[in-house]
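Before relying on records like the one below, remember that each one covers exactly one chain. Contacts with other chains, cofactors or solvent are not represented anywhere in the record.
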Amino acid sequence: MQLPRRWFSVDVIATLLHEQIVIHSSDGHRVARPLRRVASQLGFDRQGEALFTGVIKDIMAGPQVDHVRADGGIECHTHWIEAPDGQAVGLVVWIAAPPTTPRPVYNSWILDLQKVATRSAGDNLSIIGDGRKVGEERAIRHLLRHMIPDDAGEFLALYYGAQNGKEGRLTEASWSVRRPDDPGQWVHFWSSTTALGASGDRDRTVYGLTAQLRHREMDTRMSTLVRYTNSTLLMVDARSGFIVSTTGELAPAFDSDEQLLRRVLEQIDMKRIAPAASHETVVEQTISIEGSRFNVATFAVPSARSAAEVPLAILLVPATSKAG
C-alpha cells in the first residue's frame, strides 16, 4: 500500500459541496482537485487512496478536534483550520508512516463582498504583516498593505470570482508581501475560496483558505518604481473604485486617515480614467494633499489572471511647488 509521506490539506467547504474529497494542497503546494482525479499523481495506489478516503470521511463525520493516532506503523495527525466564526475551512492531515515533516502554515479568512473587508484566523496571522488580530475586521487594503502592488490583479480576479462564480467553482490568488520588520524578506501565499452562489446571504460573505508558500515567481516592477521615485501608489478597482492596496510614502497616513484617502480620490477624475484604461493611456493631472502639490499618473495594469479585472494604478509623485 502506498501512502505518500506528505501533509495534505482538504478543502472542507468544497468537499461538502461536491460530496467528494477535494485536496486543497499537498505540503503547501496548490492541488485544488478532487482526490479521485489526482490520487496517482500524488503518490497513492488504489489501496492507499481507499484507506485515505475512509479515514478522511471518518474524521469529517466526527468532532473538529486535533489529534494524533498510530496504528500498524501508520500515524494519523489531524489539524483543523477554522474561520473566526468557527466554520471549518481546512483539514490538514498526515496519514502515512512516521516521522512527520514540518506542517505547512495555513490561515483562514472570511471576505465580506459588500464591505470588501476580511476577518482572519489560523496558524499564524503575524506573517501577513498588518498587525491584525484573530477575528478583527480590516479593509482589504490593510490586509494587502505590504503586498507587491503587481499582485493586485490576482485579488480582483479572486474577488469577482467569489462574487459572480457559479456554486462550487474555485477562485484563487497568489501574492507576496515584504515583511515590515525585514524589508529583504518576502512571504508568499496562495489563497483560494469556493464560490457559494447567490442564495440568501451567501452573496455577501465567502470563506477562504490561505497556504504559505516557500517560494513563487514575482513581478516587482511596480514596487520598484515606487521605491525609487519616493512616490505613493494606489491600486484601485476600475469597476467599483474600491482600493486594493496602498504602497509608498503616504500609505501609513492613508491607513490611519480614511477621510484623507477619500479626499485624494475625490480629486481624481475616475470617469475620465476608466475609458482610457482599455487604450493603454496614461492620464496625468495635479492634485493637492494637505497643502502640498502632487503630480498624478493613472494607468491600467494588465493582469495575467483575468482580462476582465484590470486594476488601475494611481501614482502620486510630490511636486516641487506648494499649493497656494
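The longest helix spans residues 46-61.
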